[in-house]
Amino acid sequence: MDLWGSRQAGDAVGEPAHALDRDALAGFELDFSVDGVRHRGPLRTNWDVRFETVEPVREFSWHKFARGFAGWYYSATVRDHVGYESWLERDRLILLDRDPEVTAIASQPFWLHWHDGVRMRRHAPDYFVRLADGRARVVDVRAEDDMDEATRESFAATEHACRAVGWDFAVVGRLDPVFMANVRWLHRYRRARCGRPAEVADRLLEVFREPKGLWEGAGLVGDRLEVLPVLFHLLWSGALVTDLVGGLMAADSLVWTEGSE
Q1: Which residues contact 126 (CB under 8 A, 6 or more apart)?
Q2: For the CA atoms of the chain, what is the radius of gyration?
Q3: What is the residue extent of each domain of the chain?
Q4: What CATH number is given for 177-257 in this structure?
Q5: Domain topology for 17-172
Q6: 78-127 pLDDT, tens per residue?
Q7: Contact by Cβ (8 Å): 29, 192
Q8: Would the CATH topology of 17-172 be identical to that of 177-257?
Q9: How confident is the model at residue 16 (pLDDT cuts 50, 70, 90)?
Q10: Which of 41, 107, 188, 199 sits at a 20 to 30 Å CA gap from 54?
C-alpha cells in the first residue's frame, strides 16, 4: 500500500546551503508559531526550523454546519495529540502513526506565502513529517474529486517551495476502504501497553512462524482475552502480518510472523 502517492520531491534536509534553489526560495515566506510567538520570514532563512515541533498556525474548530470534521488524534509516535480537520486527514494521520519511518508529526505547521503574479496567496499544509533518516516531508490531504483550480495551484506552489529546500512533498487522497477499516481496528491497540506482557508477544511471534488462523493461533498461546490485544498490537506494529486489503479481518484470517514466509 503506497502511503504517500506518486508526487514526491527533494533530498534530505541538512544539505549544504549551496544545494538550495536560490531563485525558487526568493518567492516564498514562512509564517509559523513557536512557544506562542509568531514568526514570519523568508523560506531561505527558515527552512531548517524543526517544524515537527511547532504549534498549529490555525485552530481546529468545530461548527454544527462545518463541511469538515475536526478533532485531535493521540499519536503513539509522538506521544501527544495531533490535530486533523477531516476524516480523510484523520485516516492519513493513523497511517503516519503506523509508519516505522515516521518519527515526528506536526499538523498545520506553517503558512506558506507567495505572489502568483496577480495577488498574494497563502497555504497551510496539513502535515509536516520527520523521517527516521532525517528527511522532512510535507503532506497535503485531499480527495482528487474535491480539488478545484485554486487548490491545485496551491499544491503546485507548495511542491515548488519544497523542492527548493530539499523537502519531500506528497498529495494524498482516499485510501482503499477495506484496508483502512482494518487499520482503524488495529489503531485501537497502538499504545505500547497493548504489547504486554512481553512473554505473550514472544510466544505469538513463535506460534505464527507458520501461518495459521488468527483465532487458532491466539488460542495456542493462552487465554484469548489476554492474548488478542497483544496480537492486534503486533499486527499494528508490523511484527505480525495479515492481508489487510483482501477482506475485513476475521477469526480465520491467516496471520504470520514478519519475515517468516
Answers
A1: 84, 85, 89, 92, 107, 108, 139, 140, 141
A2: 21
A3: 17-172, 177-257
A4: 1.10.10
A5: Trna Endonuclease; Chain: A, domain 1 (3.40.1350)
A6: 999 999 999 999 999 999 999 999 999 999 999 999 998 889 999 999 99
A7: no
A8: no
A9: very low
A10: 188
